[in-house]
Design brief:
CATH superfamily: Winged helix-like DNA-binding domain superfamily/Winged helix DNA-binding domain
Distance between the termini: 7 Å
Radius of gyration: 13 Å
CATH topology: Arc Repressor Mutant, subunit A
Helix content: 40-55%
Mean pLDDT: 90
GO molecular function, one term: catalytic activity
Keywords: DNA damage
Pfam families: DNA_binding_1
Structural class: mainly alpha
Strand order of the largest sheet: 1-2
Low-confidence stretches: none
Protein name: MGMT family protein
GO biological process, one term: DNA repair
Shape: globular
């Protein structure tokens, strides 16, 4: 997705969130790369505006090193960690163990995005 307005980009990010299985996480960068967005920060801005966190599980998105965002919009990183642990995500101290818990988007998941 190299063009399109902000609303389209937001819809694409939310659509991709629904493809992250429980017990897995992705990084902001993975979403940006999959959707050809200019920066992972744009993904963060979009997720911060999520009005339906139960429908669009933004708690499953973490930093590239596995750290959680202290600015997690729905209660901070403590709430995010509890949600992830409840789903079975593996942690190493303060970071998600990305070797165990990272989800990799398949080409089919990306191509099923309604904006492609």
């Amino acid at each position: 997705m190299t063009q399109g307005n902000y609303k389209d980009k937001k819809a694409a990010v939310y659509s991709l969130l629904t493809r992250i299985p429980k017990g897995k996480v992705v990084t902001y960068g993975q979403i940006a790369e999959a959707l050809e967005l200019p920066t992972p920060r744009l993904v963060g801005r979009i997720l911060h505006q999520n009005n339906e966190p139960e429908k669009y599980p933004c708690h499953r998105v973490v930093f590239a090193d596995g750290k959680l965002s202290p600015a997690y919009a729905f209660g901070g990183d403590g709430v995010q960690r509890r949600k992830l642990e409840y789903e079975g995500v593996i942690f190493k101290k303060l970071k998600v163990n990305l070797e165990e818990s990272r989800h990799t988007f398949s080409l089919g998941e990306i191509e099923r995005n309604p904006l492609f």
